[in-house]
Amino acid sequence: MDIIFLEQVKVQTKLGVPAWERMLPQTIILDIEIGCDLSQAGKSDAIADTIDYGAVVERIRGTLNEHSFQLVEALAEHICQLILSEFGALSVKIKVAKPSILPGLKALGVVIERK
Hints:
Blueprint: E1 2-15, E2 26-36, H1 39-44, H2 53-66, E3 68-69, H3 72-87, E4 91-99, E5 107-114
């Protein structure tokens, strides 16, 4: 299986358990690996034979603008299912990080993988 990766994708969303944390959008950082078969795209050099990563990022930003999540886990699951269902990926691995959310902590988050 081949991998398309999107690293350090910064997006805005409302995320957090306390209601005050979901009042304003905050920046989260995504690292995404999309499993797919890139053999045809390598031969054809055509965007139609691959997953358009620009469209993936645009779709993620759109959905995170529309939805609010309490848990990082729920946000990660939502994005994985979106990429699997809308872009035909074979697998998705995502790391969601909330930077500087707690004093003395660089970031917190989760890594999940779905097929």
